[in-house]
Design a protein that fits this description.
Layout (H helix, E strand, L loop, with lengths): L1 E9 L4 E10 L2 E10 L2 E7 L1 E8 L4 E8 L2 E8 L4 E6 L1
Antiparallel strand pairs: 1-4, 1-6, 2-3, 2-5, 5-8, 6-7
Length: 87
């Protein structure tokens, strides 16, 4: 198990909704959040799958880090979605 850090950046004030699926010991917990850029989240687990939807105009950048593994993705425009995973 390790600490998972998620940073949501991009155009300041951009609204988003997120679903985090955190796996720990073979079990998955689902968390749902709504927020605005910038935001940071921390979870404990073996891995994470994230789906983040942009709710307002602007750019959204998502960085997920667990140990030495890092995944980054970005999208722009209302209604667009970022899907990202780290194990």
């Amino acid at each position: 198990m390790g600490q998972i850090q998620i940073e949501v950046s991009g155009t300041s004030g951009v609204a988003f909704s997120a679903e985090w699926k955190v796996t720990h010991n073979g079990e998955t917990q689902i968390y749902q959040e709504e927020g605005q850029v910038p935001a940071t989240y921390h979870f404990e687990g073996d891995g994470i799958q994230a789906s983040i939807k942009v709710l307002s105009e602007g750019q959204l950048d998502v960085t997920v880090q667990k140990g030495g593994n890092r995944s980054r993705s970005s999208t722009q425009g209302k209604g667009s979605t970022v899907n990202i995973a780290v194990r």
